[in-house]
Design a protein that fits this description.
The chain is an alpha/beta fold. The protein has 7 helices and 10 strands.
Length: about 210
């Protein structure tokens, strides 16, 4: 099973009034744990951070991963510039029209003298999966499989396991990772539907490094 962990420091409980500092410390500790566990991919998804601060964080994470000789690959969410600056392994994109394509990203990395990046793309429909397959992404994150509910109310509609099965068929040789509402009890059903792994924020989190909501 391919494991693809996604960061979100906003869901890490602060330990003092200095919440932002505590969250960043907790985030780094959590990412270090993932790297020690040899989780295959980590997506750094801290969209609210200014580019300079995101680059500093990405550099620290990249250096840590390499210092412990982990096989984990670090991907930056929608920031190829930061990925290049931090010597990260790749970039995550959405399937929205107008985004850079995997081919364009690989050309960008090649011009910078860097190895070809890992490119993952999130998809929510079969049409997007088909388009991403033609663009030759390395990974497709498909979902939300189980949606999201708060106090019993559906906030994010679920695509469902049958849609996941269809997405896996439509993706061809590109691995599809199930995303959205994944738990210990339903992860196996995603694999049985054809997913090659799990992409998640909460699923891989360890409570000792901050409570994940």
């Amino acid at each position: 099973m391919i494991r693809y962990a996604i960061t979100d420091r906003s869901q890490l409980s602060p330990k003092s009034a200095n919440a932002e500092t505590d969250r960043r410390i907790a985030l780094f500790a959590l990412v270090k744990q993932w790297a020690e566990q040899q989780i295959e991919y980590i997506q750094l998804r801290e969209k609210d951070l200014p580019a300079a601060e995101l680059e500093q964080l990405a550099c620290a994470i990249t250096a840590m991963i390499r210092s412990i000789k982990s096989k984990t690959k670090l991907l930056l969410n929608s920031r190829p510039d930061v990925a290049l600056a931090a010597s990260a392994d790749g970039v995550h994109l959405t399937a929205t029209h107008g985004q850079l394509t995997p081919t364009q990203l690989r050309t960008l990395f090649a011009r910078a003298g860097r190895p070809a990046p890992v490119v993952s793309i999130s998809c929510h429909t079969l049409e997007e999966v088909t388009r991403v397959r033609a663009g030759q992404a390395d990974l497709i994150l498909f979902g939300p499989i189980f949606g999201k509910t708060i106090a019993g109310a559906e906030i994010t509609p679920a695509t469902g396991l049958e849609a996941l099965r269809s997405a896996c068929d439509a993706a061809g040789d590109i691995p599809v990772l199930a995303l959205g509402g994944i738990t210990e009890s339903n992860a196996q059903s995603c694999l049985e539907a054809g997913a090659k792994g799990i992409a998640a924020i909460r699923f891989f989190a360890d409570p000792i490094h901050g409570k994940i909501g």
